[in-house]
C-alpha cells in the first residue's frame, strides 16, 4: 500500500486540536470538521495500551512495532507504551474502549484473551470488540510437547495414545484463558490431564522443567530460546502444533514442518477427520489463538484514512531494516504479517462463532471444568 493522505490540519497538540473541535461544534457554525483527520503527527504522543504485564509476549511484540511505527508514521510521533494488566486483558481494553479517541493518537494491543473474554461473555467485559479498527495481525504458532517420561516413543501418534492411557499433570492459567484452544484439543483427542490452574506460561514451563508437569505448550516465539533446548537435551518431545492456515487450508507450522498438526493427530487416533460442530468450535479457537494471536487496533469510529495510515506504517516497518535484526526475527518468527484489509479479514474470522458453536463451547466448559454461563 502506498496511500498518500492530504494534511488538512496543522501539527498542533491533541489538547489544542480537541479544543478547536469543541469550539466549532459549540458555536454551531453550520459546517462539519474536515472529513480526513490529521495525518501529520509531528510533535504528538501516541499512547499504546498493552493489556498485559511487562515482559509478556504482547509487550515484546508491541514495543517492537512501536519502534517501527515511530519511524514510519507521518511526522514520526513518540509512542508511549502503557501496560495495564488484569483480567486476561479485560482491564486494559476496557480502559482503551472508554477513553481512546479516534484521532490516531490511541492504539492498543489485543490478543487471545481479549477475544475469548468477549466471546464467552465475561461480565467484566465493557468493550465492543467488533467496533475496533485493526491494522496489524501477527500470527503465532503453538507447540504442544510432553516429557520424555510420559511420551517414550519417537512417534507423535503413539505418544498421544500413551497420554490418553496415562493422563499427565498439566499446569495452566484457566479454561477460559488463552489456554482454551489447547485444552479443547486435549479433550477432543481424549487426553484428560490432572489440571493445576492459576499459573502463568512461565510458571508452567518452569514446573515442566522441574518434572512437576508432564505436558505443556508454548507459543512459537518461545521455541528457539526456551523449548528447543528442552527437546535437544532429551527433556521434552514435540507432540503436535495447532498448524497454520495457508490459502484456506491448515498446514504444518512453517517453523516446525516436521511436527504434525493437531488435525493430523486427531485423524490418526480416530480414523477420520475432525468435522461437524466440534471442528467449527476448534477452528474458531484456532483462528483466535494462531492467526489472530497478536493484533494492533485503533478505537471505534477511527476514519478509514487513519487506519490506512497506520497500516502503511506497519507494512513499511515490517519491510524495513529494523525488522531484519535477529531480535525482531525471533519475535515474529517465519510468519507473514497481515496489515490493512488482510488484518481486518483475520480480525473478523476470529470473531466468527455461530450460536450453535457458542452453545456447544459453553456446554463443554461446564461439563469439563464446571464453568457456568
Structure explained in plain terms:
This protein has 373 residues and is of the alpha/beta class. It has two domains: 14-22 and 37-139 and 292-351, D-Maltodextrin-Binding Protein, domain 2 (3-Layer(aba) Sandwich); 142-289, D-Maltodextrin-Binding Protein, domain 2 (3-Layer(aba) Sandwich). Helix content is 43%, strand content 17%. The protein is built from 14 helices and 13 strands. The longest helix is centred in the first third of the chain and has 16 residues, at 57-72. The protein is globular and about 60 Å long. Mean pLDDT is 89; it is low at 1-38.
Helices and strands in order:
Blueprint: H1 14-27, E1 45-50, H2 57-72, E2 78-83, H3 90-99, E3 106-111, H4 112-119, E4 133-138, E5 142-147, H5 156-165, E6 169-172, H6 180-189, E7 194-197, H7 201-209, E8 215-219, H8 223-232, E9 236-241, E10 244-246, E11 249-251, H9 262-270, H10 276-291, E12 294-298, H11 304-319, H12 326-332, E13 338-339, H13 341-351, H14 355-369
Parallel strand pairs: 1-2, 1-3, 6-7
Antiparallel strand pairs: 3-12, 4-12, 4-13, 5-8, 5-9, 10-11
Helix pairs in contact: 2-11, 6-10, 10-13, 10-14
Total helix count? 14
CATH architecture term of the largest domain? 3-Layer(aba) Sandwich
Strand order of the largest sheet: 2-1-3-12-4-13
Unreliably modeled segments: 1-38
CATH topology of the largest domain: D-Maltodextrin-Binding Protein, domain 2
> From N to C, what is the helix and strand string?
HEHEHEHEEHEHEHEHEEEHHEHHEHH
The biggest beta sheet is recorded as: 6 strands, mixed
Number of strands: 13
Globally, the shape reads globular
Whole-number mean pLDDT: 89
Amino acid at each position: 500500500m502506498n496511500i498518500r493522505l492530504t494534511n488538512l490540519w496543522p501539527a498542533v497538540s491533541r489538547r489544542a486540536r480537541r479544543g478547536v473541535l469543541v469550539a466549532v461544534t459549540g458555536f454551531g457554525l453550520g459546517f462539519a470538521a474536515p472529513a480526513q483527520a490529521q495525518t501529520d503527527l509531528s510533535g504528538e504522543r501516541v499512547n499504546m495500551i498493552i493489556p498485559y504485564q511487562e515482559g509478556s509476549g504482547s509487550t515484546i511484540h508491541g514495543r517492537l512495532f512501536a519502534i517501527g511505527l515511530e519511524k514510519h508514521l507521518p511526522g514520526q510521533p513518540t509512542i508511549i507504551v502503557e501496560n495495564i494488566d488484569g483480567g486476561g486483558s479485560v482491564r486494559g481494553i476496557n480502559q482503551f474502549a472508554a477513553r481512546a479517541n479516534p484521532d490516531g493518537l490511541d492504539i492498543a494491543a489485543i490478543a487471545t484473551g481479549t477475544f475469548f473474554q468477549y466471546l464467552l461473555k465475561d461480565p467484566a467485559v465493557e468493550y465492543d470488540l467488533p467496533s475496533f479498527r485493526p491494522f496489524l495481525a501477527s500470527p503465532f504458532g503453538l507447540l504442544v510437547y510432553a516429557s520424555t517420561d510420559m511420551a517414550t516413543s519417537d512417534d507423535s501418534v503413539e505418544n498421544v495414545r500413551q497420554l490418553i492411557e496415562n493422563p499427565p499433570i498439566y499446569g495452566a492459567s484457566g479454561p477460559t484463558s488463552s489456554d482454551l484452544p489447547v485444552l479443547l484439543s486435549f479433550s477432543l483427542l481424549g487426553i484428560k490431564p490432572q489440571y493445576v490452574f492459576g499459573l502463568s506460561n512461565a510458571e508452567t514451563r518452569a514446573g515442566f522443567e522441574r518434572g512437576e508437569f508432564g505436558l505443556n505448550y508454548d507459543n512459537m516465539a518461545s521455541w528457539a530460546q526456551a523449548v528447543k533446548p528442552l527437546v535437544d537435551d532429551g527433556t521434552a518431545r514435540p507432540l503436535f502444533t495447532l498448524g497454520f492456515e495457508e490459502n484456506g487450508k491448515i498446514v504444518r507450522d512453517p517453523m516446525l514442518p516436521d511436527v504434525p498438526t493437531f488435525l493430523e493427530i486427531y485423524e490418526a487416533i480416530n480414523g477420520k477427520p475432525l468435522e461437524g460442530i466440534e471442528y467449527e468450535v476448534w477452528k474458531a479457537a484456532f483462528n483466535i489463538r494462531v492467526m489472530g494471536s497478536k493484533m494492533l487496533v485503533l478505537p471505534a469510529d477511527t476514519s478509514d484514512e487513519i487506519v490506512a495510515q497506520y497500516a502503511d506504517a506497519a507494512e513499511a516497518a515490517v519491510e524495513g531494516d529494523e525488522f531484519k535484526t535477529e531480535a525482531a526475527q525471533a519475535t515474529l518468527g517465519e510468519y507473514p504479517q497481515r496489515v490493512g484489509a488482510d488484518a481486518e479479514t483475520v480480525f473478523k474470522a476470529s470473531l466468527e462463532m455461530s450460536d450453535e458453536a457458542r452453545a456447544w463451547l459453553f456446554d463443554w466448559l461446564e461439563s469439563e471444568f464446571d464453568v457456568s454461563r
